[in-house]
């Protein structure tokens, strides 16, 4: 940019100098032409005045000669008028000469006016060129000022670049130091990680074995649960049958109430040992569940199993545990409902016996 500004300033200066030289040469030519024309006009005016004076003298001489000759000699009309010494012919020649001189004078006056107009135009052009020269000089000064400002800015930017390069070198050195420290730290952490893996490999194998044992116990518990569920469904069917029998007993006549009461006691006596058996099995199952929960608590929390097992297997175990707990709760509710139904049946049986 600095080179372009200098080139532009030099080109402007060269154009201004060439224009001034052209205008000065044209002005010198114009002034020389004006001086020549003025000298020619003055010489012509002097010649014209001298010719007029001579012509006046000749006219006076001719008039005096004519007056004296007419007084002495008679007038010859034909031959004397054509002779070169005829005063009238001399007067006509002088008049023609005067007219020719006047035409030349008019031509020279018109030429002088045109030269003056051209001189005015050249002077106006010179004024315009001087004005343009002043404007160009102002522009050149402004360009020089802007060039100086640009040079200062360039120097400042160069200093800023040097400072930035210095900061960049310092930052690179700091980053290299930090990189070496981080590499050393990573190597140390890798060594610690290998040591921790070797240290916990034995405990990991033990936890995996315990996890397999828990899986086996949970599968066996699920099988027991399915068997107990089937027995519970059978018991619920028997309870529903006893309920239908109770409804049927209520609708019969009072005459057959004793026989129905005996049948109900027999059915109750049949159901009650099965109910006791179911209750004992449920208590045993509940006890096994508590033992299983205690064993799981001793082996570790859910986070320990998650560290040992895979995520899919751990989620599956959590879902199985949740399902088992829900089934146990539902089994508790069903067992409570069945006990309540049996209590109501016993009470109704007692009421029917009292009525009988």
From TrEMBL:
Name residues in a coiled coil.
Answer: 91-199
**Compositionally skewed regions (Basic and acidic residues) per UniProt:** 247-258
> What are the start and end residues of every segment in region (Disordered)?
228-268
- Give the source's domain of life in one word: Eukaryota
> Which residue ranges have biased composition labelled Polar residues?
232-244
Entry keyword set? Coiled coil
**Which named protein is this?**
Putative myosin-2 ovary overexpressed
Organism name = Rhipicephalus microplus
């Amino acid at each position: 940019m600095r080179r372009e500004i200098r080139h532009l300033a030099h080109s402007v200066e060269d154009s201004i100098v060439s224009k001034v030289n052209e205008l000065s040469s044209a002005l010198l030519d114009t002034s020389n032409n004006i001086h020549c024309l003025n000298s020619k006009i003055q010489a012509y005016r002097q010649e014209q005045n001298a010719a007029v004076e001579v012509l006046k003298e000749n006219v006076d001489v001719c008039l005096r000669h004519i007056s004296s000759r007419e007084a002495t000699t008679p007038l010859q009309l034909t031959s004397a008028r054509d002779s070169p010494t005829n005063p009238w012919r001399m007067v006509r020649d002088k008049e023609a000469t005067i007219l020719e001189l006047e035409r030349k004078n008019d031509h020279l006056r018109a030429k002088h006016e045109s030269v003056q107009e051209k001189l005015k135009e050249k002077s106006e052009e010179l004024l315009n060129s001087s004005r343009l020269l002043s404007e160009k000089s102002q522009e050149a000064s402004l360009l020089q000022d802007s060039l100086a400002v640009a040079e200062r800015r360039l120097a400042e930017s160069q200093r800023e670049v040097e400072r930035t390069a210095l900061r960049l070198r310092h930052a690179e050195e700091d980053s290299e130091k930090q990189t070496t420290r981080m590499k050393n730290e990573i190597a140390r952490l890798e060594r610690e990680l290998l040591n921790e893996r070797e240290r916990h490999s034995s405990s990991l194998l033990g936890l995996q074995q315990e996890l397999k044992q828990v899986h086996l116990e949970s599968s066996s518990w699920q099988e027991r649960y399915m068997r107990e569920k089937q027995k519970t469904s059978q018991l619920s069917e028997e309870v529903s049958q006893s309920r239908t029998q109770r409804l049927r007993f209520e609708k019969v006549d009072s005459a057959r109430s004793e026989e129905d009461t005996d049948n109900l006691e027999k059915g109750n006596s049949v159901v009650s040992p099965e109910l006791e058996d179911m209750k004992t099995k449920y208590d045993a199952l509940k006890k096994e569940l508590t033992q299983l929960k205690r064993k799981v608590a001793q082996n570790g929390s859910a986070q320990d199993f998650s560290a040992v097992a895979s995520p899919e297997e751990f989620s599956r175990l959590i879902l199985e545990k949740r399902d088992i707990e829900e089934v146990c709760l539902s089994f508790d509710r069903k067992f409570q409902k069945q006990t309540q139904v049996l209590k109501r049946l016993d009470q109704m049986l007692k009421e029917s016996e009292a009525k009988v």
